[in-house]
Structure formats: C-alpha cells, structure tokens
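Consider this record:
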Amino acid sequence: MTDSGRFEWVGRRWNHFWFEPGGASTLGGARIAFFLLVFLFYVGRPLAPWADVPAAFWMPTLLFRLLHIPLLPGWVLTAVDVSWKAALALSAIGLFTRYSTIVAAVLGFYVLGLPHNFGKVHHSDTLVVLLMFVFAASRGGDACSLDRLRRLASLDGKKLPVLLPLDPEYTWPRRVALCLLVLAFAGAALSKLRNSGLAWALSDNMRNTLLVHYYDHRPPTSLGLLVASSPTLTHLLAAGSLAMEMGVVLALFGPRLRAFFVTGLGFMQIGIWLMMGVLFLGYASVYPVLVPWAEVAAAVRRWLGARGRVVMLFDGSCGICTRTMRVLRAVDVLGRIEFLDVIGQWPVIAARYPRLDRLQCLADMHVLASDSSAATGFLAYRRLAWRVPLAWLIVPFLYVPPVPQFGRIIYRKVADDRMSHGCELPWAGTEPS
C-alpha cells in the first residue's frame, strides 16, 4: 500500500468512527438515560450550604479564577440549583430540548464546579459537565422527546417522517462520550504506572486499600475483607483492574471490543462499590450513553414476538385521528401496536375481523387484542398505554376513580365534535400503514 493509500485508509476509518450514520432513537435514548441519572444523582444535594463556608476556605480552581466566577449568596445558589435541576428534568423528557440542554450545561458547570473550590477536587464530576455540553451541541432531541411528539401532532406535522433516517449527527456525541471514558480510565492507569510502576499491582497496595475502605467507607458487603485475606486474590484483582483500564483504548477499534471493555469497566466499578463503598456517580451516568438503544429495542421486539400486540383502527380521513396515530407510532418503541386505516384498509380489516361494523369503527377508535376482543374510546387508550413504555408511569392512574369517568366524558366530547363537524381538519387524509 502506498503512502497516499494509507492516508486514505486512515481517513476513511477516522470518518467512519466519528460520522458513521446512526439512529436518532439511539441518541434520544442516550439523552433520556444520561439526564435522568444525573437528575437522580444530584437532586438531593443542596447547593446553598456552600455559601456558609468561611471565606478562608475559598480557593478558586483555574477556570473559576480565570473567569472571575464568585461564590454567590445562599438565596442565589438556591435559585441556580433549582433552575439547573429543572433543566435536567426538561432535558430528560425532551421538552424545549435545545434550550434546556444549554441551560443544564451552563448552570451545571457552576453547580458541579463550585464544591471543587474548597480544597478538594472530585474528578468524577468532570465527565458529567463535559457530556452536558456535548448534548447541548447535539441533536439529541430529534427523537424520544416531547418536542418530537409536539411536532408530529402539530398541524403541519404530516410533513415530518415518523421514522427519521440515519444521520452522522446522531453518532458523534456518543463517540465523544466513549473517548472521554477511554481518556479517564487510560489516564488513571498511566498515572498508576508512572508513579508506582508494576508495584501498584504486585505489592500489598490493593490489600491495604480494601482494608482501609472497609472500615472507613462501610461498603454494603464484606467481600472486600474476603479478598483482602488472600494475597493471590488481591494481586489478581489489582492486575486485572490495571489491565482493564489500560486495555480500554482498544474500545476505539470495534463494536465488540467496545462492548467488552465498556461492560467490563461497568462491572469493575460495581465491584469497587461492593468491596470499597465508593460509588462513582459521574461515571455511572456515562455508560447508558454508550448503549445502542435502537438495537436493544429491536432485540426486545424480537424476543416478544407477537405476544401482547394489539391492532389500532383509526379514521384516516380525520386530522385528529391521523395525528394521534403518528404520535403513537413514534412512541411505540417495542413494536406492540399495528395501525390499520378504516378508510383506506377496510377490506383487510373486514377479512380479519368480520364482526366489526365500519361505521362504529369510524365513530370510535378501536383497539383489538390477539383474541379479537375490542376496547373502544377511553378504554382503547388505556389498553394502548400498556404497550407504550412512555405511558407506563401513568397506567395506574388510568384505573383510579374518577379518572375513567372523566376520561370517557372527555373522549365522547372530542369524538362527537369531530363527527359533527365532519372532521374538517387540516391535512386529513389516508396515512400509509
């Protein structure tokens, strides 16, 4: 291979790594998992008490010093803290995603950076801050977001495809997350070798660390004491963790290596928590970003097969019905719903369900189970909620009085108004199944 050929090969590999066409749902799933975990990890940590720390302990870090960022009063810290956590929640559900992720990143820099200015630096927060800025610059709200559902349900939503095409824009943010994780662990391994050499693994360092952490941090199990009682086990544990941290660089060179090392590092950190009582919350929020969520959903769909699938019959000539169908199709990540248009596909419906009346199907939405039993109106929506993971949290409330009673009344009102006006709504027309 000539030099120019090598450069071209390297260029192709480089572009493939960063800009391989990816799915919007995978990045959307990563956004949900990341911001939800960050919200849960930090929601119980108030920021205002830092205002009460004596000024003598204020030792600004480099960025705080260069940017002249001050320690704000307590009431301002409370406002910043509440705003940040609200932005995290909005980013997780994908509401005003572009703005909420930017606010989460900017305020997160201050909220997570402030505790580092009092003499102790917590390195696990760094990945969280960097990834928030990555999501702020990405198109993470294109799928699996309330913004997406609002656009699909809007009057001009028919111009939007229900399923977005593969795009490089959905790949590079997850690749950045991978590189950050690799740099963090490989850097830790190089630091150990640089300062201690192989003695880090071959000495009593791991045994002493396990013993100190058992009595100091009170881990949830006594597994650390058991391992510390065996010199062989402690040396193997130290060598294995060092090899895993050094080998994580290989995760950059293929999906199988990526899956092996990322999974291995995840289990390693679970082991650290079980044996030492140290939980790296910042790192824990990174792993879900690397999960191929679209592939996971596809695997679940294959595993479920036809079990629990339902058929939704809708009026393809009605704007409300068609928009509802498009929203449901977008959130049906497990493929539990089949959509059939009563207007354009009635011969298919009549052949499969000969007992159904077409006028009744046009008057009320029907959802049919595998045994051909039909739920209509509000009960149809309740049956659909069991098939859509996004709605699982509200399913219990759909059975609590007076929700069913009000649900029937509201559905009847909307359905009757739709029929009385002849369903003269924008972009009414048959939607392909």
